[in-house]
Design a protein that fits this description.
Layout: H1 2-11, H2 19-60, H3 66-89, H4 92-108, H5 113-130, H6 133-151
Family: Belongs to the phycobiliprotein family.
Organism: Pseudanabaena yagii GIHE-NHR1
Pfam family, one: Phycobilisome
Length: 152
Amino acid sequence: MIPKIQELINQAQDRYLASDELGLMESYVSSLPDRLKLYKLIRDREIDILQSVADQVPSELPNVTVEDLELGIKNLVLVLRYSSMAMLLNDENFLKERLLSWLEGIMSMRDLRRLNDTLYKLLNQTLRQQFSPSQLALLQPLITAAQVTLIY
């Protein structure tokens, strides 16, 4: 949304914003307190969320190596952080431009599809336990975009 807001501001340098343009800006501004609150919650709970995921992996995938698990969790940390920032900005392109194309290239070097599938399943379960449905609605589409990119 920030690029859209910047575009609106640039377009309105010699005129007032139209009603629909103001509506876009009002929508973003009114959702900002909820986005900020969720961003702070994710930041403060990141270690607990990811530790919960990491602790459950061995029972789901008993043959996973420590090296692969560490790599998977490191990538999941990046996905959670970039998804959180994209959620705060309300800008899915931020996630795509900054993270997903890079991660897609990294992940294609090793076959970690089964591990990634398990990590995202466990992450989604943990997020559902930690956050309200309205909070999940802000974050989930971004996590899903990362999941789709890395698994399929």
